[in-house]
Amino acid sequence: MRFQHKLGFFCILILVSPLFTSSQEHVKGVSNRKEQIHKKQMSRKLLFEVKLHGFLLWASMGFLMPVGLLAIRMSHRVHCRRRLRILFYVHALSEILSLLLSTAGAVMSFRNFNNSFNNKHQRLGVGLYGLIWLQALIGIVRPQRDSRGRRMWFLVHWILGTALSVLGVLNIYTGLVAYHEKTSKGIKFWIIVFTAEVCFITFFYLFQEKWDYIQKKGVTLGNESKRATINQVVLPRDKQKEVALAETC
């Protein structure tokens, strides 16, 4: 009798065990699905943060910083005080906004991304974050025009600002490459658009540098050249300067 009871219990255990295993597999399947859904949500959130980081750094170093550089460069050939102030404020405002946006992008990078610093984009980005703050401090401690350290300050400020613009543009390209390596998404369209923007800014920079030379060569309208010759013949030099300043303003 005992043997029969044991045999019956063993048969019941064999029949019921598939139910336990199937239930366990069902629980594991549900948990795996939840983990997959959670990973997808996290990846979407991370992808959004990567895109936002790229947009902030493009707006900072790919747009606002070159605009500020162009504004202060254009002021060197302007004689009207009102226009000089406008160009200076454009330069200062664009650089301040560039500093704030790059700082926001840096904070987002340190908080949300895996900063192993094993690629060029991360290493160059850290250097740019430090240099942009150094450039801002140099701009704040600007000496007066007639002081002895004005020339050295201008040289350092100009070299550092130009280097920041060039390295910032380069780091945007490395960021696009890193984005492609992480997500396997195409970046050809964005590279073409950004390259077109860089070419336009470079052309405008070189063109405004040569604009005075073009005007002196008589490429301007004939009425302006005739007016200039009349002023040179009729008016004395002091009056010519006053008229020139009035016309430029």
How would you portray this structure in words?
By secondary structure, the chain is mainly alpha-helical. The chain folds into 2 domains: 64-209, Four Helix Bundle (Hemerythrin (Met), subunit A), CATH 1.20.120.1770; 221-249, no CATH class. Helix content is 86%, strand content 0%. The model is unreliable at 224-233 (pLDDT under 50).
Short description:
With 249 residues, this protein is mostly helical. The protein has helices at 2-74, 81-112, 120-140, 150-183, 188-209, 211-216, 222-234, 237-248.
Secondary-structure-based class equals mainly alpha
What would CATH call the architecture of the largest domain? Up-down Bundle
Query: What do we call the CATH topology of the largest domain?
Result: Four Helix Bundle (Hemerythrin (Met), subunit A)
Q: Overall pLDDT, averaged? A: 76
> What is the β-strand count?
0
CATH class bucket of the largest domain: Mainly Alpha
Give the SSE order as H and E letters: HHHHHHHH
| Total helical segments | 8
Strand content: under 5%
Oligomer: single chain
Number of domains: 2
Tell me the span between the first and last alpha carbons: 117 Å
The helical percent reads over 70%
Characterize the overall form: globular
Largest sheet at a glance? Answer: none
- The low-confidence parts are 224-233
Taking all Cα atoms into account, the compactness measure Rg is 33 Å
